[in-house]
Every structure is written in structure tokens, then in C-alpha cells.
Design a protein that fits this description.
Strand content: 35-45%
Helix content: 10-25%
Radius of gyration: 19 Å
Low-confidence stretches: none
Number of helices: 2
Distance between the termini: 52 Å
Number of strands: 8
Length: about 130
Amino acid sequence: MILALIEHTLSDIAARVGADPAPIRECADMVRKHGFVLEQEQHKLSRCLPGRRGWIRVYRRLGAGFCEMWLAKSFDPTGVVVHEALMREPAPLDLRQHFFRSRLRDEVFLVEDRFAKTVFSLPLPAVRA
């Protein structure tokens, strides 16, 4: 209902100033298509695995049913997800400062808070022959 109201109001404003309302409708349609969930990669936390054997990428997911959720996804060199780990239970908190930096150490992916305390760890995927 709120999205419909925003879409209608912005389209009305666009029509009044002579702008094309199509991008507003397209954006609202994409929000509906994705089930009102936004998933954004947190580039500063993502890491390339040693030997270019893949990636671990961190995502922040926002949605009405769960508020905020953080995920670590392991990708093979071809870009296929091989593992997904929940970094913290969904909560109505902004955890961008909680998950502050990441690094690789001893075949483990570590995420630290701003005080350098490890708040998440994930063993690196095994090397496939």
C-alpha cells in the first residue's frame, strides 16, 4: 500500500513537471518483483581467496519480514555459489559498524568489529582438484 502511494505521488509529480514517469513505475515493479527485499554486497568485506580459487562475498539483506540479515557466500572461480552462511540472526538493527573489516587468516575468513574483535568466522572452502 505504501509503495503504491509513493509510486502514485512520484508519478503525479513527474507528470506535473513534464518528466517521464516510466522509470518510477519500473522501479516500483522491480521492488514488487523482488518481494520487497534488498540485497547489497558489502564490497569492503568481500575477499578473493588465495590462488584465485574463488571469492567470499558478504551481503546485507533488508526485508519487511526479517528487518536486517547478513550473509557470507562462497563462490567458486566460475561465479557459482558453493556455500552460504548466516552471519547473525535477523534483527531490527543496523549492523554496518558491527561488521567493520574482514581478512583471511590460516584458511579462515574472519570478520571483525571496529574494535578488532572477531564477530564471524568461516572456514575457507576446500580446494577441488
